[in-house]
Amino acid sequence: HRLELQPEPDPDMNTKILVIDDDPDLLKLMTHAFTRSGFEVFGAKDGGVGARLCREHRPHLVVTDILMPKREGIEIIVEMKRGPEPPKVIAISGGGQLASLDFLELALALGADQVLRKPFRMSALVALAWYTLGEEALMASPRAPPAGAGSGPHA
Question: Are the beta carbons of 94 and 117 closer than 8 angstroms?
Fold first, then answer.
């Protein structure tokens, strides 16, 4: 067996993703999926922690649940999109509708770049992240997907 050494990724070059969800199992699954795909990932168990981590780490992409304790995802989206260099945002929710108002539609109206309804496959989330981040992420990541992978929001 011949050992092939892979170059160490430059930590300054990695695309940063912040994942915010109050479901600890889903949070763990999402952070693991993004880490395996070569992203630098930060996880937050609620909107309050997520807002702080967003200010501290300035992620390129934020994946946030909508219905959470302490601070709702909608509030986080609005706050992040007001900043000088707003991250891309994917809003996720399995939570219902308030009268005829769909939370994911509201998230899009308030600045989310993409939405994804729960339940979803981790591969769909990662593909949507690549799509949302665009060429920036492909240039920065040592583990970019093969050409044509995740080439659309429904890949």
Answer: yes
Instruction: Encode the chain in three state secondary structure.
Output: CCCCCCCCCCCCCCCEEEEECCCHHHHHHHHHHHHHCCCEEEEECCHHHHHHHHHHHCCCEEEEECCCCCCCHHHHHHHHHCCCCCCEEEEEECCCEECCEEHHHHHHHCCCCEEEECCCCHHHHHHHHHHHHCHHHHHHCCCCCCCCCCCCCCC
For 48, phi and psi rounded to 5 degrees? -65, -50
pTM score, whole prediction: 0.80
2-59 confidence digits (pLDDT tens): 444 433 444 445 899 999 999 999 999 999 999 999 999 999 999 999 999 999 999 9
Measuring CA to CA, which residue among 93, 95, 121 is closest to residue 108? 93
Q: Which two tokens stand for residue 102?
A: 């769909």
